[in-house]
Amino acid sequence: MNALKREGLDTTHGAILYLSDITVSFDGFRAINKLNLDISVGELRCIIGPNGAGKTTMMDVITGKTRPTSGTAFFGQNYDLAKMTEYEIAHAGIGRKFQRPTVFEQHTVFENLEMAMKMDKRVRPTLFARLTSEQEDKIDAILRQIRLNGQEDRLAGLLSHGQKQWLEIGMLLMQEPQLILLDEPVAGMSDAETARTAELLNELRGKHSIMVVEHDMGFVTEIAQQGKVTVLHEGSVLAEGRMDQVQADERVIDVYLGR
Ligand SMILES: Nc1ncnc2c1ncn2[C@@H]1O[C@H](COP(=O)(O)OP(=O)(O)OP(=O)(O)O)[C@@H](O)[C@H]1O
Question: How many angstroms separate the alpha carbon of residue 254 from the centre of ligand 1?
Answer without folding.
Answer: 20
